[in-house]
Write a structure and sequence with these properties.
This protein has 113 residues and is an all-alpha fold. It has four helices and no strands.
Length: 113
């Protein structure tokens, strides 16, 4: 027995396959759609979900991955992270300086009784 959960954490490939076999056995085949965005189209998804007419056509567009070089060039990716952290630090220093200048007129006022 396993507590109900929205996540699974199989420790072995056998546990992984066992879980998905149970899922496949539980649902009727006509209610299961094995979605693969590399091969399936939006029209197929709309047909499965009974959406007619399908608002979009073709395959799912690929998202732009700005960190694709992270896997291929890990040293460069780490250098970019360090650079970005440095730029954040500089921005905070500039913001602090501007706020300090903006608050100077307020600090110069004296209370008069």
């Amino acid at each position: 027995w396993q507590d109900p959960s929205t996540t699974i954490d199989p420790k072995t490939e056998e546990e992984f396959r066992s879980f998905y076999t149970k899922v496949d056995d539980y649902f009727p085949k006509e209610q299961v759609f094995q979605w693969d965005p590399r091969t399936n189209t939006l029209e197929e998804l709309c047909a499965f979900l009974e959406i007619s007419p399908c608002p979009k056509k073709g395959k799912v567009p690929k998202a732009i991955n700005t960190w694709i070089f992270e896997r291929d060039f890990p040293i460069a990716a780490n250098a970019v992270i360090v650079l970005r952290l440095f730029l954040h630090w500089v921005n905070w220093k500039l913001l602090g300086g501007l706020l300090s200048l903006a608050s100077r007129p307020c600090r110069g006022r004296q209370k008069t009784d």
